[in-house]
Specification:
Family: Belongs to the glycosyl hydrolase 5 (cellulase A) family.
GO molecular function: cellulase activity; polysaccharide binding
Structural class: alpha/beta
Strand order of the largest sheet: 13-14-15-16-19-20-21-22
CATH class of the largest domain: Alpha Beta
Number of domains: 2
Shape: globular
Pfam family, one: CBM_2
Oligomer: single chain
CATH superfamily of the largest domain: Glycosidases
Helix content: 10-25%
Enzyme class: hydrolase
Catalytic activity: Endohydrolysis of (1->4)-beta-D-glucosidic linkages in cellulose, lichenin and cereal beta-D-glucans
């Protein structure tokens, strides 16, 4: 599916210096809807609050948004400042985004007012479009405890994690860590992988103001669409994973103290995560091949001593013990995706960084289309990293829903642990993906490869040889 980006033409100011400049763009578009963004620059004296208005010409209707209080009356759309971004100094800018429905055309607005004063309009950067996909990866659905294609054949998700999209953009270095061109994806396929998990960053996808424009919004979405297209062209299933998110957490096991999406947070945030998934699901609405991994590694159990509170937070979100920001629960994220009409398979990881699935079946979210899989992460240093634990906690889950080990790995520069894990999952016809297809150190990464042509590390050799043995 091609991504259309729309920019409005320059409108020349008449008379006095304009009060503001507005850059409007469509960062994602699909049948029946689109994602939009407005960047407001204040060209006058400092403001204590702001209120932007504009009109749609084709019956477009805003359904949700972020970084502003969005509302619409008839054709008129209003974006008002929130308490935390109300101050807008002279020369300062703020970016806000939204999702909207459309039934026909999608003409961009041509006139904007800020606090009642007319603005100039910035044309913004020219749009880019990703190449079309040949859609050779199969459409997937859940049937009992199996993930199947449309023919009814079981599809085990066996492959690797391609890290980079979660951290490069927010650190200001780029979008991917290393090449993701056709040769790089072919190297993954040469290991006989049939799935690639792609970690993402919600601030970069939504194009929030702390992200460099060249690495966020339209540019980031197009880069993800390009990678998904290449993965699918090689017959592999792309798994899109919400990895790093917004929200400040400084409690037990905090990965960082930053409010921005610069590390693993204990839970997704209500402010942006539902909008992220609504946008992703809408962007790929016509593609039944991708699988969505709702949140990388939840750990609300580290923020509270109550197991019940932790699992309740995991499912329901809201105000959670020990987590200062408003949480989006797994049910919120399922609902956000399903409300777009998407029926793609969803993966949901448990507590303790997705290592604890002991009460997953008790608290599992409800999926109206029944395409839900449980996600487990297992490393040699985790609590649940033995056959006895897998038998007692994972096997009961796998008896009810598909089970995918979204990450397996070890910090030994060897493959004894993943050999044991792969055998356990093989014996039960389950899925697993190794972490990570990056050229870091084989112990601290841990890295599967030493070069992007697929040259394995000692650790990666275990996964490569095993996948090739399964599919000679």
């Amino acid at each position: 599916m091609l991504l259309a980006s729309v920019v409005v033409p320059v409108v020349s100011a008449q008379g006095a210096t304009p009060a503001c400049t507005v850059a409007y763009s469509v960062t994602g578009q699909w049948a029946g809807g689109f994602q939009g963004s407005v960047k407001i620059t204040n060209d006058q004296t400092a403001l204590n609050s702001w209120r932007l208005t504009f009109d749609f010409a084709d019956g477009q209707k805003v359904t949700q948004g972020w970084n502003a209080a969005w509302s619409q009356s008839g054709t008129t759309v209003t974006a008002a400042s929130e308490s935390w971004n109300a101050s807008l100094g002279a020369g300062a800018s703020v970016t806000a985004g939204f999702l909207a429905d459309r039934s026909g055309g999608n003409t961009a607005p041509t006139a904007f007012t800020l606090n009642g004063t007319t603005c100039n309009v910035d044309p913004g950067p020219p749009p880019t479009s990703p190449p079309p996909t040949t859609d050779t990866a199969p459409a997937l659905h859940v049937s009992g405890t199996r993930i199947e294609d449309t023919s009814g054949a079981t599809r085990r998700l066996l492959g690797v994690n391609r890290s980079g999209g979660e951290f490069m953009c927010v650190q200001g270095h780029g979008i991917w860590d290393g090449p993701v061109d056709d040769a790089a994806i072919q190297a993954i396929a040469d290991w006989k992988a049939d799935a690639v998990r792609i970690p993402l960053n919600e601030e970069c996808w939504l194009g929030l103001s702390n992200i460099k424009p060249e690495y966020g919004g339209t540019n980031y979405i197009n880069a993800v669409k390009n990678l998904v297209a290449r993965v699918e062209t090689h017959g592999m299933t792309p798994i899109l994973d919400l990895h790093w998110t917004y929200g400040q957490y400084t409690g037990n096991s905090a990965g960082c103290s930053d409010v921005h999406a610069t590390c693993q947070k204990p839970m997704p945030d209500a402010q942006y995560s539902p909008s992220f998934w609504a946008s992703v699901a809408s962007t790929f609405k016509d593609d039944p091949a991708p699988v969505y991994d709702l949140f990388n590694e939840p750990y609300p159990d580290r923020a509270t001593s109550s197991t019940t509170d932790a699992w309740t937070c995991w499912r329901d979100g809201g105000t959670c013990a020990g987590i200062p920001y408003e949480v989006a629960g797994m049910q919120d994220l399922v609902d956000s995706i399903r409300n777009t009409g998407s029926t793609n398979v969803l993966m949901v990881g448990g507590l303790a960084y997705a290592n604890d699935l002991s009460q997953w079946t008790v608290y599992k979210p409800q999926d109206p289309v029944g395409n839900l899989a449980a996600a487990y992460h297992g490393y040699n240093f985790n609590t649940c990293a033995s056959e006895s634990c897998w038998n007692s906690t994972l096997a009961p889950v796998a008896a009810q829903v598909p089970l995918v080990a979204g990450e397996i790995g070890e910090n030994t520069c060897a493959h004894g642990f993943i050999d044991q894990a792969m055998k356990w999952f093989d014996d039960r016809n389950l899925s697993y993906l190794g972490w990570a297809w990056n050229t870091w150190d084989c112990s601290s990464g841990p890295s599967l490869i030493s070069a992007y042509d697929g040259t394995p590390t000692a650790y990666g050799t275990g996964l490569r040889d095993h996948l090739r043995a399964l599919n000679p």
